[in-house]
Amino acid sequence: MSCYKLEKFNDKKLSNILKLSQRILLWILLFLSFTKMVVARCRYEESRQCEAICQPQAVLQTTTVVELNNCHIRALVLLPDNETYLASLNQTLSVLQAAEDYLHRIDILPNYIKFNWLPQDDKCEASYAVIKAMDGITKSCAHVIFGPVCDYSLASVARITKYFNSYGTPLISIGGSTYDFEEKKTDCEDEFYMLLRTGLLSFESISKLTISVMKSYHWSRSILFYDRDGQHQVSGLHTCFLMMTSLGKQMRNENMTFAQHSINVKLRNHSEEMKREIGNQNSGKFFLKQKFNINLA
C-alpha cells in the first residue's frame, strides 16, 4: 500500500472515530441535562455539592449565583493503559479530547462547559476496575464513566453504577459484546441499568451473520475450533470463549447442532486434534460424480 493511500486510510479511520466520539458526548450531555427531570435513582442518597455541573458561588450570606464559567463535567476514563488493546487509555483519551474540541468549535457544546478527563488504568481486570470506578466516584466525584471495554471488567462495574451518586452514574462503553449486555436496561431491577453501549458490532451480530451464511448453504451441523484466550486485545480475557458462548446460544435457538472445542495452543499442527474431535459424529461422506472423457489416440 502506498504512503498516500495509507495516510488517506488513517485519516478516514480517525474521522470515523471522531464522529463516534462526538455522538457519545452528545448522549452524555442529553443524559445529564434531563437527570433532574426523571426519577431515575435506584436508592435514596443525599446529593453532594460536587454532583452539580455548574458550581454555585456565594456572593452574599443570603444569595448564591451560578457562574457560567465554572461548569465542568468530570469524566472518568476507565481503560487499560496498554497499547496492545484496541481501545487503550492514551489513544482513547486523545480521541475524546479531540471530539470535545470539535463540539466546542461547532457550538454544540457551550464554551463555558468543559470536560475534566480523569484517566485511570483498569488493567483489564474485573476487581481492579471496580476499585478504580469507586475511587473515581468517591474521590473525584465523577459525573460519567467511559469504559471499561474488557467484558469481565465492564460487567463488574456496570452492575453497581446505578448506585453511584444520588441519581446513578451513566456508563458509556464500546465494549459489552456478549448477549448478556443485549438485555433491556430501563429499570433499576435490570442488571446493567446505567450502561449505554455504543459499539458498532456485538457477538450476537456476528453469530446471526454466521447462522445466515450456514442457512444459505443448508448447513445445520457444525463444530468450531477456537483459542480460548484468542483476540485478547478486543475484549480481554476469554474473548473467543465468550464469542463461542454467544454463537452457541444463538444456534440452539435455531435448533442447529453445535459443538465447540478449545484448541491446544502449544501444538503447531492441529490435524490430529481435529480428526479426534470431529470423528464420525461430526463428519459425513460425500460422493463426487464426474464424467471423464479419455482420449487414447
From TrEMBL:
Keyword Transferase: no
Highest taxon in the source lineage: Eukaryota
Domain (Receptor ligand binding region) ranges: 94-254
Intracellular or extracellular location(s): Membrane
GO MF, any single term: peptide hormone binding
Annotated SUPFAM superfamilies: Periplasmic binding protein-like I
Keywords noted in UniProt: Membrane, Transmembrane, Transmembrane helix
One Gene Ontology biological process: signal transduction
Entry annotated with the keyword Cell inner membrane: no
Main location per the UniProt record: membrane
One Gene Ontology term, aspect cellular component: membrane
UniProt cross-references to PANTHER family, sorted A to Z: ATRIAL NATRIURETIC PEPTIDE RECEPTOR 3 ISOFORM X1, NATRIURETIC PEPTIDE RECEPTOR 3-RELATED
Protein name according to UniProt: Receptor ligand binding region domain-containing protein
Protein source organism: Glossina brevipalpis
